[in-house]
Structures are given as structure tokens and as C-alpha cells.
Amino acid sequence: MTMERIRKYVTLGNIIGLIIGLFLTWFVVAFLVYPNLNLLKAVFWVNGTFSIEPIQKLLHSTRALKSLLNSFILAVSMVVTVNIIGIFLVFVNEYFDIKGSRLLRIGYYTTLVYSGIVLVSGYKFLYGEQGFITKFLSNMFPFFPAGWFHGYWAVIFVMTFACTSNHVLFLTNAIRKIDFQTVEAARNMGASSFYILRRVVLPVLQPTLFAITILLFLTGLGATSAPLIVGGTEFQTITPMILAFSKSPTSRDMAAVLAIFLGAATLILLIFLRKIEKKGNYISVSKVKSEIQKQKIGNKWLNALVHVLAYLLFIVYALPVLLTITFSFTDAYSISTSTLSWSHFTIANYRMLFTEADAYQPYIISIVYSAAAAILVVALSLTVSRFLHKYSNICTTALEYAMLIPWLLPSTLIALGLIITYDTPRWILANNVLTGTMWILMIAYVIVLIPFTLRMLRAAFFAVDSSLEDAAKSLGASTFYTFRRVILPIVLPSTLAILALNFNSHLADYDLTIFLYHPLFKPLGIAIQNATSGQTTADTQALGLVYSVVLMVISTVTLYLVYGRKSKA
Amino acid sequence: MKIKLKRILLPLLGIALASSLAACGNNASTTNAADPVNSTNSAKPTNSAKSPLVIYTNSASDGRGDWLKEKAKEQGFELQIVEGGGGDIANRLIAEKNKPVADVIYGLSTMNYEEFKAQDMLEQYKPAWADEVSDGLSDKDDYFHALVKQAILMIYNSTMYDENTAPKDWPDLWNDEQFHNKYDAPRTGDLGGGTVQATLAGILVRYQDPNGEYGISQEGWDAMKNYLKFGFYKAEGEDFYANLASEKTPLGPMFSSGIASREQQYGVKAGIVKPEIGVPFIVEQAAIVKGTKNLDSAKAFVDWFGSAEVQTEWSKQFSSMPANNKALENAAQDIKDLEASVKQQDIDWAFVNKNINNWVEKIQLELLP
């Protein structure tokens, strides 16, 4: 961004805009562009020459190419399957009249507090070699293979049910914005239920669905835990390889190449969906919205089928969580054999967690870091979204894409970029050194949260009708007042959901944290890793589950504080 | 709407603030003095004696870190331990080389220290106990000194095999069909680990060939390919020793000090394969980081930690094999027996250090199934 272009803002209007614009420019350059370019330079310019050797090496590796292909297969499959399940969940919760939907909702919300490796382990209690369902099936059919839950289908099954969080949160917010009078009007004019769904309901959901689809695609490309646990050697994906490469000094260039390739694929999808997005109008017509009323499904058989499916899904969601909680009260023997008996019931694992000398400290440190990062990144992204919503020019487009840079690199490399760039005083940070301070971890947390936050907030901003804003302005409201009293309330539900998700996402982070944490402030992710791997004096498997349950409790409390009370109101 | 917003956000901010204050409160008194990076005038010797030493290590689990902190405190050392996987700690150290956070490093392996030395990251210092360590274990230029020897062994479930039926050496695993899919093989994410790298090196250096790819002959690469082809790859979250005990994979690599505690946990004794060629030994070292603001107390700490007395206790607590000969004399009998019974494989670690990253990369790209 050149000064002239920034000057244009001044002539356009307000000085605050200029200050914010300058701040954003500084932020993007200092934390998104400069450290990452610096790292890429260190990675690719070996001995002063640029080399395309990493690309050649990758092209010659059948293993890398196959893993890459698998990642794309997974990403595309997930876009289909998760959207189907996710949309179904949201309609069951919000649109159709389903008996017991309050209970169902609890089951569907479990993915919000329960993710990654824990979730996949939860699935293993059911479908793994020793799992309950496997045992049940092999009792019924003697030749049923114990290792059936394996490979592509197992991965896609786990990932499908693991990744509906964004639907449950953001699509729900979007569906609540549908103007019920329009639905009624359509019905009065003789539209069928299906027609109403297709022509009235879905268009309003489209911006959110697009945003979720991009995230799904990215999640599929970046899948780690599920392929590592149930993929086996026949369905390996690329992310574990990227992670391994990013930790080896000689192979870092390949990690960067692969990550940039995946990021570029996501960006292409993003640009494509943005093109479609721009053509549409996603604001429901009525200015005086009436709340949506749940629709009864007319056809008796269809109604029964939807009920059965809804409860089946509830079981699929709820059982792994219940089993994880139950098994956290047992020992390694019970966990590895998936057997439950009173004689193996113990609370020793929990006792150990809370009686250690400085056991509570990592929790406080991680909670403070995560909360601060979540709030900062939401404040930043709200500002940026507001800019993007209000102005559309080359600067804002550049800003938007710059904010997506963290999608282009694995978190290890982002961490290393920060360390090697800010280990000496740089004028861009007023000659402050970041390496070795407690700030560097906070900055890194903020950086990696930006793309997700911005993407979801932008989708929320599509629901803001600019005529409301104009009305407020013409009544004499100031820009800030309009933002606070008119726009913020509209985007608030999504904002709070993002806040909660962001908070949860870094509570137990290891990959980024290990490189940046301050010796005095040991975060939870480090404590968990050290307690559960390489440890032999304790029951590490049980301890792993105990930590997961504790994290689930923290996440649930957060969701309730930030979000739960609102949704009840 | 306004009231609602406040209701929701205020408690959240409240929590954040309260907890951040709590966290500050805990440490406010120590932060300034403790932070070696931020303290501008720490060049004063009076300050450096008091400020805590920041120790980087991969060897703080199983209570090692807490034990060390406590014992060091009795000697007047305040320690802050940054612990993580060996590869992660080494990467972090290298990334921070212009602005070191660590004062002292211990653990890891000779390969890592060779790299640190090459990048001029270490302070030259000869600890008081340097002469009690056998030649060839520590750095000849006194940049790092040996603390603990780890034999990287192939172990087996002793209820399934005995000395005669177990493999005699690594090549048996892939040459003898009965062991196929019975041994634990390294997955993508394991290849950065010290034990795995020493195992790979132990196999590859048998086929050293100056004209071969990365110094290894084609025969060697074929052997490595077969080793990886016929191995069993456990899923994330599975534990090798648990699989050994359950007879799923009764064979696999293990570092010597890890055996005793696992035998106890799983109730299955491990048999040890003793190949004629010997087994790789990796050596955990101690070194002082160049640029430390606490040079004097770092030296004093290394003098204390590596001493025969402390290493004897360390060995008794955590069944390590001391590099310090005086400490080894006083170590538990089974450790002395192990030390005496397995031969050290002759490995040119400088050669390994030069090539290991390329080897691992080739394995990742071409040889893993």
C-alpha cells in the first residue's frame, strides 16, 4: 500500500479511518508479511541461490504425491459429506419440528468441546479392533474382521462427524436470520416445502455455507489426527509429512513448498466462491423480521425417517464423548482393551492431576493466553471486516488476502519465522526484541487465528443491510455509535461463537507453543505433552484422557459463558 | 441488546483480567530478575548469581525435571526448565541462536551438539569432572561433555522369544520371514527422534560407500527399504511397549534407560538382542550456551550436575547409564551388567551427523511405505 492510496482515504472521509488503516498496514507488514518472507528466504535461498530442487524431489516421490492426492480426495469428500450432515443437523435443530430437539442439540454440540486426537480415540472405543461395535458385530458374524475400521472410509467417517462445529454454530446463526414472513408468504402463494427451502431459505444461508465450505476444504487438506489413527499405511495424507519436514532443517524447503501448494489450492477455491458471492444478494427482504417458527414435516413417513436419522446421529455424536469420560476413570488396561469393569475403576488419574505442586499454573497461563489472543484477534478482525464491508478497492482486497497468509504456512514455520526475524531490534517494532519474551507466543496465537476469524466474520457481515446503517447515519448517529448500536448487534452471535472457538483452539496447543513459550510461563499444551509422552511412571493413556476431559470441561464452561446464555435468551 | 452485550462480555473480560492478574501476581516478584532477555543490566555479576538458570532439555519427564529442580535448589541454583521433544528443543535452540534464552543444555545427543558447535552456539568450558569421563564421549575441544550413555537396543518380549529364537541382529528382521510385521517400525512423525535416528544410523553405517547416495551404497538403501517394508506401523496414540507386552509387535528399538520402568509398568520382561557388530550408543551431553548472562552460575551448575555424586543419584533414580566412570562404579548392578555385556557399535558420528537429515529425507520421500 502506498502513501498516496492511503491519502485517498483521508479525502474520502475520516481521520480515524486513516489511523486504523495505517495500523492495519503496519500489523500486516510486521507480523504477516515480513517474518514469513524472512523465513521463506532463509529456507529457499541456500548459499545465495534460489533452488527448485525441493519441487523436483517432491515430484519424484510417489509417496509424497500419493499422500497429496489423498489429502485432496479427503478435502473434496469432506466438503460433500460434512455439508450434508451439517445442514441436516441445523435443520433438525432450528427449522423442522423434531421431538426432543433440546436433547439432540446437546449431542450435536459435542464437537465444539471435543476435537482432534481425543475425538478419534473416542471413536476407537466404539469402532476400533477392541471397540464395542466391533465386538458386537464379530459376535453376530463370526468372520467379521476386527480391523474393519481402517483406511479411507474410516477417515471420512470420523472427519465427517468431527467437523460439523462450524455448521452447528454459524449456520444456526444464519438460519435464525431468515424472515419468517417471507416463508409464510411463499407458502400462501402455493410454494411447496422443498421449493421454499431451495428458493427462500438456502439463499440466505449461502454466504455462511461458502465460508464453511472453504474452511472444510482447508480442514480436509490439513487433516492429521484421523488419518494417523485410523488411516493406516494405505490412506496417508500429506500433513504429517509437512509437519515432519518442517522440523528438519534440511527438509524445511519441502514443507514450505507443500504448505504453499495447499494454501494456494484453498485460495483458488476462495476466489471462485467469492466471485459467486459477489453476484448474490443475501439480505432477506423484510426490515421487521419475525422469528422463525419450526416447520412440521407434512409427510408422515418422511417425518418418521427424519426423526430416526436425527436420533441415530445423536448416538453417533454422543457415544464417543460418553465413553471418553467413562474411560478417563479407568486404567491403561481398560483403555487398550475397551473393557469396563468396577475393579478397574479409579480416580487416581484425576487425583494426580490436581495434587502436583504447580499443577494449576499451566491452566491459568493457557487460559490467559488463549483468552487474550481470542479477544485481540476478534477485535482486529471486526475492524478489518468493517473496512472490507464498507470499502471495496485494491487496498482492501490486498488487505483481505494478506490476512490469509497464515493459511499458507504450517505453524512450525510461522513460529520459526517470528523467532529468526525478531531476535534483533527491528525498527518496525520500535527496536524491540520479541524472541524470549512472553509476547511472542501471544502474537503467534493471534496470527494463526486471523484467517478463520476473518473468514467467518466476513460471512456474518453479509447479513448487515446497509440501509440500516444509512438510516442510523441520517438520524445523526456517529460512525462509532452506528457500529456499536446497529452493526455489532447483528454480527454479535457469530462474533461470540468465534470468540469461544478461538479460545478453545489454543488451550492445549503444542506445535506452535513449544518454540515460543517463555520459560517462566509453561502453557498447558507443554504440560500435557510432557505428562503423556515419554512418561513411564504414570498411566499415560489414562492421563491423556483425563486431560481431555478437563479440557472439555473448560471448553464447555467457556461456551456457556460466551454463548450458551445468549442462545437461551 | 446493549444490556445483553454487557452481560456477556463483562464476565469474560473479568475472568481474563482476574486470571491475568493472578498469573502476574504469582510471578511479579521474579519476572524482572528471571527474564534473562529483558534484564538490561544483568552484566553485573551480583545480579547473575541470583537470576535463575534457564535449562533446555528433552530429558525432564518421569519426574527428572522436578527432582533436578529440587536438588539444585539445595545447592542454591534456581532452575527454569524448558522441556520438549529432542528435535523441537534443538530446533528452538538453533532458531534462537542470535538471542539465546537458554543458559545450559543437557540431554539430546552428540549429533545435536555437533550441530550447535558448528553453528558457534556453545561456550567452551571444561567442567571439574571432565577427566572422569572416558575418552571419545565428550567433545575434544571442550564445548560439550558427556553425562549419560544410552544404548539403543533391539528388545523383545521374553515370554515369546528367548536368546536362541529371538533375532540375532537387525537384518534378521527383514531377512527372516517369521519376524515380518512383528517389529515396530518408525512412522513419518517418529523420524526426528533420537532413538529412531540412532537405529537408522546403526543399520546404514554398515553400508558406508563414498560413491553411494549420501555416503551409503545401493545395498544399504535396499536393506533400509526392506526394514521399513516389513515393519509394523502402529497408529497414533499406540505405545510400543504396550504392543510388545500384548504380543502385537514383540520386537522393536528401545533406549536402555527406558526399559526398567516399562518392565515394571507392563509386567513383561524385555529381552535384549546383542548383535556381534555391537549396538549404537548415543551420549547425552551437557553444554553452556554462548551468550548466557549467567556464565558463572552456569559453570557452577554444570560442575555440580555432572559430578560423580549427582550422576550416581541420577542413575539410581532414573536407571541411566552414567558416562562418568566414578558414577558408573556406584550405579546399580543391572546397569553395570548391561554396560559390560553390550558392545558399542563403531560408528563415525561425524559422518552420521553430516548425512542424517538427508537420510531421513530420503526415507520420508522414497522408502517409507
TrEMBL record, chain A:
It is a multi-pass membrane protein. Residues 68-273, 363-562 form the ABC transmembrane type-1 domain. Coiled coil: none annotated. Its main location: membrane. It holds the Pfam family BPD_transp_1. InterPro entries: MetI-like, MetI-like_sf. It is found in: Cell inner membrane; Cell membrane. Signal peptide: none annotated. The chain crosses the membrane at residues 12-34, 72-96, 108-127, 147-175, 254-273, 304-329, 363-389, 401-422, 428-452, 486-503, 542-563. One of its GO terms (biological process) is transmembrane transport. It comes from the Bacteria. One of its GO terms (cellular component) is plasma membrane. Keywords: Cell inner membrane, Cell membrane, Membrane, Transmembrane, Transmembrane helix, Transport. Belongs to the binding-protein-dependent transport system permease family. This is ABC transporter permease subunit.
